[in-house]
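Journal club prep — side note

Before the paper discussion, L.F. wants everyone to see what a predicted structure for a comparable chain looks like in token form. Sequence:
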Amino acid sequence: MTKSPVANHLRRLRFEHNEMSQEALAKRVGIARQTVIAIEAGQYAPSLELAMRLAHVFGRRVDDVFFWRNSTSTKG
């Protein structure tokens, strides 16, 4: 499976927030634990709404949580 061009800091943020489990994060934003696993692994890029919900859990901006895997992806 091809990795998404969007990477993230979810795993690190979970551990910085009292080692929050994938299950706990999933419940907070209303998704399945498997979806958290796929996002963290770079196999799935979340919708904007889900990205905003995930960032909100950690009190961060979306671009503090998600970023382009390859900086050339943002060039035109």
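L.F.'s comment for the group: The longest strand covers residues 6-8. Keep this in mind when we get to the figures.
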